[in-house]
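Listing S7. Sequence submitted for prediction.
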Amino acid sequence: MPYFAYKGRDAQGDVVRGVLEGPGSGGVAGQLFGQGITPVEIVATGAPVEKGVARFYLFREKIPAEDVMLFSRQMYTLLKAGVPILRALAGLQESTRNKAFAAIIGEIRAALDSGRELSVALRQHPKVFSPFYVSMVQVGEMTGMLEEVFLRLFHHLEFERGMRERVRSALRYPTFVLIAMAVAVTIINLFVIPAFAKVFAGFNAELPLMTQVLIGTSHFFVTFWPLLLAVAIAAVVGFRAYVATPAGRYRWDEIKLRLPLAGPIILTATLARFSRSFALASRSGVPIVQGLNSVAEVVDNAFIAKRIGQMRDGVERGESVLSTAAATGVFTPVVLQMIAVGEETGELDDLMQEVAEMYEREVDYALKSLSAQIEPILIIGLGILVLILALGVFLPIWDLGQAALHK
C-alpha cells in the first residue's frame, strides 16, 4: 500500500506530523481520527526511513522477527512486575544488541514522552510491527490488559516462527538436491561433453541420436551461455517486479495454493495462521470486523486476504461468520461446523483456537511426509538424467568397440 505524509492536530491542539500506510488518503484520515488526531494535510509520499538507523540499506542491520518476539516477552514480564512503560522501554533499549531495533525503541520512547499512545508510536514502524500487532496493543491499552496482550503476541509470534522453521526444514533437502543437479548439468554441458565431442569428431563416424542431442545442447550452452545468464537474471528481476504489484502478488499467491504437493501445505498453514490470529484477536476483545480487517494483513497471502475481506464485508452487512466463511470456499466442512457451534455458544474464540490447532497438526503431518513424497520424484529425475548422459556418452564408445572387434 502507498504511504502518506500527514499534518494534523491532536486533542491538545498540538501540531502532529508523520507518515502512515493506507489504501488512500481517506483511509489514512480514518486512521488519524481513530487516534484522536484531526488531519489538516495528507499528501502521498515514499516509504519512511527510520531515524537513527543507517540509511544505506545494504549495510543497515536488519530486525529479525525473533527480536520482536523477545521484545514482546520482555514487555510482558516488565509490565507484569509493575515497571512503568517508559522505564521498561529504556531498559530494553539499553539491553538490545540490535542497534537498529534499539534506535526504534528510542523513537517509541520519544513518542511516548510527547504524549502519544504506545499503539500510535508502534504504527510509525510498519516494517517492524505489523498492523495486527499494533491493533492488539491498541486493544490492550483500551482494556487495561496490555501485559496480557504482549504475552499473547509472544505466543503468536513463536507459533509463526515455528511454522516457518518447519517449512524450511522440510524443503532443505529437496532444495539442496535440485541445486546440486543444476550445478552438475551446467558443468557437464560446459566442460565434459565438449571434451567427448572432440574425441567423437576424430572418429568420423555417425553418432547415435542421443549423442547428437547431447552435443547440440552442449554447443548451445557453450555458445550462448552469456545470453542464457542474462535471460535468467531478467526473468528473476521481472518476476519479482511483477509479484511486487498488487495484481501480480494476488495471482502468484493464488498459483501457490494450486502447486502440487506444496499447495495444500501452504493453504493449510495459511488457514492455521488465520485461525490462530482471529482467535487471539477475538479473545482479546477486538470486534469481529476490526479483527478480520487486521487478520487479513497477517496471513501473508493476497488471495486468502481477499477472501477474509469478503468475510469482513459480509459481517458488516449483518451476515453471520458461518455464512461468510462458507462463501469463501476455502474452509472444510468440519471447520465450518466448528464455526457454527462457536457462534451458537458464544465461544467462537475457543473454537477458532481448536481449528488452528487442528490445522497445525495437519501441517506437521504434511511436512513430515513431504520429504518422503519428494524423494521418489528426485530419485526418478536423477536416474533419468544419469541414463541420458550414460547413453549419450557410452553408446558411441560401445559402437566403436563392437566395430573394432568385428574387424
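Caption to Listing S7: primary sequence and predicted C-alpha cells for the chain studied. The longest helix spans residues 348-406. DSSP finds 15 helices and three strands in the chain.
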